[in-house]
Amino acid sequence: MTFQKRAYKILELLEKFGEVEIRQLAAEINVSEVTVRRDLTAMAANGLLYRTHGGAMKISEVIKPVSFVNKAGVNIKAKDAICKRAAADIIDGDVIFIDCGSTAFRLCQFIKNKKIKVITNSLPVVNELLDSAVTINLIGGEVDATRQAVHGTTAYEHIARYRASKAFLGVDGITVEGLYAGSEHEASNTLAMALQSDCVYILCDARKVGKTSYLKFNDLSLVNILVTDYNNPDVTEFETKGISVLSVTV
Amino acid sequence: MTFQKRAYKILELLEKFGEVEIRQLAAEINVSEVTVRRDLTAMAANGLLYRTHGGAMKISEVIKPVSFVNKAGVNIKAKDAICKRAAADIIDGDVIFIDCGSTAFRLCQFIKNKKIKVITNSLPVVNELLDSAVTINLIGGEVDATRQAVHGTTAYEHIARYRASKAFLGVDGITVEGLYAGSEHEASNTLAMALQSDCVYILCDARKVGKTSYLKFNDLSLVNILVTDYNNPDVTEFETKGISVLSVTV
DNA sequence: TTTAATTCGATCAAAAATAATCATAAAAAA
DNA sequence: TTTTTTATGATTATTTTTGATCGAATTAAA
């Protein structure tokens, strides 16, 4: 019985009971207590479990895992429907930008098993995709705590170094006149990502279509595809401006 | 029977059983154990299987290496004592590097109320300092999921753009001969941060002092201050090399 | 607090597995 | 063909793994 196999067994028992005693393990695996003790020490050093006097505990019950949480829970159904449709366009081998909005965040759940590269400035996105098939490239720069995202000059320069096949971006408002953002930061970031992408998707639920906001940062020429649940004849206005509209129903 | 044929057979058996013993393989393929051993070594080097003592395992069966959160569970008392001492040296206005090791992570709790800038490649550090007085600059680049940190060429270039007054770094081992790391990534990162800092602190609990590891990546000239709980006359050896040793008791 | 019982870490020894060395056989190159 | 290189197996030295033992440290009980 090799160390690797014992480690497996130990983790299995740990998962089952939450905690285990050395005597119990020694009997179960059929090795001496000294060996079990050595195994536990090694595994604790590798962070696979938490060592206690006389045994071990599951790590999750001792230390809280790292987690960035995306709080924005508004209009989730619509956002999920939009993102599901958008995800259908993502194929293996794609390199995509995902911005730090609450809409684009919902995209994560649909792309976990795709073999793609994701470039993002959003900490919740990184956290969500950490244990997935996706390769993550995180934009560097100053961290904005309220948005849980990276912004600033360094960040935009970082974005400019990469080239993606698709960008999935949210906006604060979109009309035939152009794109609106809620802050300079958001605008700069959206713009930087869009400029480095072959195909720009705007993910935008119905509330924001036809609405303006604080800052108009670009006209519609930046956009290739608009994914929305806004089912209204007006969408033809966008199409005449050269934008493909993907309508979804909630 | 050529190597290629044997390799195929070995992978086949591995797929079937998940693990194999050398004796078993030698009998099955009808070659000596020495040859099997050589085959396994070669195949392991190419990442086709995981070598164990006495045999081999399927890669997927092997327990994932160091997950970062967990490693924080080892020797916490010593690490906290070390970090508390180190934090006493940090003053308002400082710009500091914090690396992605489990020791340096413990520093966060002591600096939350300081008016400083922290530059880091560690996601847990970012998470821990998100709601604090600290301004965070996150290194950008490829995300290493197991370490929950950012690494790669882009990351090291990002580091080179900044200049800090102090760097707080962990190592896998330190002797009078030099500094040791557990991987190329860790070494590159530590080195990059150290080179951009006016004063380099090595945070190192007693277990790692006097110990060597996988990779020696630099001599001691890189280091200015060693903070450790290693209370032994031998520390004078480091001091003769020009390093200030800050000893703490647990 | 003191005492007794565990548990731990260090050291040692035996067994197994590995790495290193060498000689031979097979294959490739000259 | 001869020479050189490569692959294999045998042999020996080294390393790793495991279990036993004992003093020190830790926990639980009195």
UniProtKB/TrEMBL annotation, chains A, B:
Gene Ontology molecular-function annotations: DNA binding; DNA-binding transcription factor activity
Keyword match Ion transport: no
Pfam family, one: HTH_DeoR
Gene3D superfamilies linked to this entry: 3.40.50.1360, Winged helix-like DNA-binding domain superfamily/Winged helix DNA-binding domain
SUPFAM superfamilies linked to this entry: NagB/RpiA/CoA transferase-like, Winged helix' DNA-binding domain
Domain HTH deoR-type span(s) in chain numbering: 3-58
Record's keyword terms, sorted: DNA-binding, Transcription, Transcription regulation
PANTHER family: AGA OPERON TRANSCRIPTIONAL REPRESSOR-RELATED, HTH-TYPE TRANSCRIPTIONAL REGULATOR SRLR-RELATED
Stated name of the protein: DeoR family fructose operon transcriptional repressor
Species the sequence originates in: Pedobacter zeae
Lineage: Bacteria, Pseudomonadati, Bacteroidota, Sphingobacteriia, Sphingobacteriales
